[in-house]
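[[Per-residue structure]]
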Amino acid sequence: MKAHQSKHITMVVLTMTRLILLLITSSFLPPILTVDPPLPSPDGSDFIRTICNTTLYSDLCFSSLSTFANSIHNDLNRLTLAAIYLTHSNTLHLVSYFQNVYGDCVDHGCGGGPHNSTTSALKDCFENLKGAVDDMRGSMKQMKDLVSTGSLQSFRFQMSNVKTWLSAALTNEYTCTDGFEDFHDDGFIKDDVCSRVDDIKKLTSNALALVNRYADKAVP
């Protein structure tokens, strides 16, 4: 009987000891981590990503416009203007590049005289791109001068002008590359020109998509 009671007491002591140790060690454990929902990025990059997802070339849209995040402040008007500015700037650089690389070819002929297909295609493309630069400049000016406090009809008219300028720029870009469609003289020139202009087309397409979105979402 005494042996049985001793065994029972020992088991109780062991149980109490384990419980005390558990309580002691648990007090040193770190609290359970709680995960709060992510907050919007303070620099506006989440806003840009969301808007860019509505464009045809969303990755290019985000990578090219995210550098403006700190100045856009989740403002669709500013984002749209930045997209037009970026496209205009890149087109200007491209025109400068073409003039430096192919200027002599255009002015004096590309090996086969001033009237061969290479010279003609380049000359026409240059003119198209210069026209695109002027179109973008007109679009950018209209967007800067945009007055959204007037009537709905006035606002729509102004946005229609912005769209018209950008659409004309895109048409000029396509006309440039179309001129190389049946081009067989110099594959390098064709590939170089068309690949670079294709990049500008994508930027212009994205800018036009943002203009359309702004026109639909803005309330004058």
Observations:
- Residues 76-108 form the longest helix (33 residues).
- Residues 1-40 have pLDDT under 50 and may be disordered.
